[in-house]
Amino acid sequence: MSQMPRQAALPKCPNCAEPVEPGDLFCGACGQDLSVASAPPQDHPTLAMTGPGTPGDGVDWPAPEPPGSGSGSPPPAHLPTDLPGTDSGETPLPGHQPAPERSDGAGVRFDRPAEPDEYPLQAPDPRLAAGTAAPGEPAQVCVACRAGRVDDDGYCENCGHAQPRERDHVERETGPLAAVSDRGLRHHRNEDAFAVGHTALPDGTPALMAIVCDGVSSATRPDDASLAASRVAGDTLLAALPRGTHPQAAMHEAIVAAAQAVNALAEEPATAREHAPHQNAPACTIVGAVVTSGLLVVGWVGDSRAYWVPTDRDAPPARLTEDDSWAAQMVAAGLMSEAEAYADERAHAITGWLGADAYELEPHTASFKPDRPGTVVVCTDGLWNYAETAGEMSEIVPPDAAARPLHCARVLVGHALDGGGHDNVTVAVVPFPVPPQGAGSA
Fold it and tell me: In whole numbers, what is the pLDDT of the chain averaged over residues?
C-alpha cells in the first residue's frame, strides 16, 4: 500500500509546545506572540575565585601597619569607594556609591543588572491608533490587553487573545417579556438561539410570543440551525397572529416553517464543506409559547421545555411539554421510572428534531387556560438539567418574575452556571396574562 511522504516537523510554540505553521504571528492554542523571539540569556562567564590578585593591577593598596604600632584601637576601615577603580570597559567607577554585597573571594563581580519583576507586553503598534477603521465604525479593542485591535478572525493583533463571540451571552427584553442565552462554562460556542416579540390580535388585544431553540451538537452547523429556526418561527408567529390565525394553528405553522429553514441549510455549500461522515445534517430542537389575554399555547419538537409557575406558590406548578427523548419513551412505555430513565446515560438521546435527516416531523402543540396569574418559563436543557421537575423550577423562579422578566431570566441562567454550566443555557420568561402596556423589568 502506498504511503504519503513524511513532512518535516512543524515548528512549535515556545510557550505551549503546540505545532504552529511557518509565518504564524500568534499561537492558535494559547495566543503566544510568535513574532518576538525569546532572547538568549546574557553570557556572564564565571571568574576564578581562588588565588591572589595580579600584582601591578593599577590599584595602590594600603600597606599594613607594622606590628606594635597600634595604640590599642583598631585601624580605620577602608571603604570600597575610598579606592579608585574601573569597570570592565576601563571607565572610572563613580565615587561614594553604596558598596554592593560581596562574598569572600578575589576577582568576583556583582554588578549584574537587576532582573525586572515583570516583563510588560509588547507595546501596541502605534499605527493601530491612527484610526484605520472606516468613519463611524470604530475598531474593536481587545478585552484582554485593552490596547490591540481585533482582526477579522476574532483575535487581538497585539496580545493574540481570542475575543468573546457575539452569541456567547445575549440578553433581550421587549415589552413585558425577556430572554437570556449564555454559552455556559464548558462549550466553546453558544449553539442556542431565541426569538421574543409582542404583537396585537385583530381585536386589538396584545399577544406575546417566545421561541427557544437548541442546536444538536453532533450535527453540522448546530449554531446556524438554531438561529435560523428561531428567527423563522418568530417571524411566522408575528405575521400570523395579527391576521387572526388561531394561536395554536399559528404555532404549528411556525414549527413547520422553522423545520423548512433548517432543512435548507443542508443544501448550502458551507454545510458541504463542514460535513463529516460521522455528522448529521444541521439540526436543532424547538419550543415556543404564545400568551394572549386568556390563552396559553405551547409547541415543541425535541427536549426543550416549557414550565408553568403560578404567582401564588401555594398553587401547583406544571411542566407543559413532553420530551421527544429516549428517557421519555422509556417512561411512557412503563419500562422505567422517570428517575431511573433520566439517570441513564442515554436519557438525552432525542427522538425528534428539526433537520433534513429527521425521521418524520411531528410538531406538538397544546393550549391551556390558566385560572390565575403566573409565569411561563421556556428553556433548553441547559437550564432544566439543574431544575428538572416543575417543583424544582418553581423554587428557583423569583416571586416577582412576571413583573421583572429580564431579572428572572438572569437569575435562572445564573442558577445553571452556578450548578456547573455544562451546556449552553437559554431561557425566555413570559408573564400570564399579558400585563398592562408599559409594564416590564425594573
Answer: 80
